[in-house]
Amino acid sequence: MPGIVVAGLLLGHALIHGSYLMPQPAAKPGAPAWPFRLDRSWLLGPIGLPREISRVLGAGLVVVVMAAFALAAIASLGIGPTWLWWIGVTIGAMASLAILVLYFHAWLVLGIAIDIVLLWSVWVAGWIPDGLGT
């Protein structure tokens, strides 16, 4: 797969995580609930973590996801050493999984699948974008 396509897919996945940092749209009758909420964690709330700390933790993870996937996207274009690809994908996917699991919403299952496929592709299959590392 060409590096430009890989870069676009990684950046798209990262930008979707940016929705966690956006203001929640006003509720409309019949509209589904906003899935990108950092103040509702099925795990952090029950253990007593205050909502504000949960938000800060989640926002930090979003920043890590966006930075790591941006690094991997740059590397997929052949800019920088190959190890940037491995590090960017690994850190980005792990941070993404952390967000998607900690602040789980059924709509976001596809994101979990994407992260698992990314990690499998890099660490099990040893895949790298075309032209990278050649």
Protein architecture, described:
There is one protein chain. The protein has 4 helices and no strands. By secondary structure, the chain is mainly alpha-helical. The chain is elongated and about 50 Å long.
Overall mean confidence score, pLDDT = 93
What is the chain-wise order of helices and strands?
Answer: HHHH
Shape: elongated
Low-confidence stretches: none
End-to-end CA span: 14 Å
Rg calculated over all Cα atoms: 16 Å
Largest beta sheet, briefly?
A: none
Structural class: mainly alpha
The helix content is 55-70%
Give me the count of strands: 0
Discrete helix count: 4
**What portion of the residues fall into strands of 2 or more residues?**
under 5%
Provide a brief overview of the structure.
It contains four helices and no strands. With 134 residues, it is mainly α.
Topology at a glance:
Elements: H1 3-17, H2 51-76, H3 83-102, H4 109-123
Key descriptive features of the protein:
single chain; 134 residues; mainly alpha; 0% strand
